[in-house]
Amino acid sequence: MYVITMAVHLRKKPVTVYLQELKYLMFQQMAVAQNRKAAELVREAMDEYIQNHSKPKKTLEEWQPVSLGGIKPGAQDWLSKDYQDEMLGSASW
After folding, report:
1. Mutual orientation of helices 38-53 and 21-33 as an angle, nearest 10°?
2. Residues 23, 28, 29, 33: what is their CA dihedral angle, to the nearest 10 degrees?
3. Digit-coded pLDDT (tens) for 66-81
């Protein structure tokens, strides 16, 4: 996750982006239709992109315990019987 200080957050940085002319014209039309500036739409699009792509989205299958150093040869996954003794010890419940 990105942490931005308030001082940096309030300043605006000019950026040059090269686009295909037709796409830019379409974007300008969208801005006019919404009674907004194209730059405002670009900032909003960047905010949405950061929000949707900056957080790791891991499923249980993608998670790997750091301490084990990798799946044992022949093991199917992290949850299989191959790791029960190592993770839970030899205690019987």
Report:
1. 100
2. 140
3. 555 566 676 666 566 6
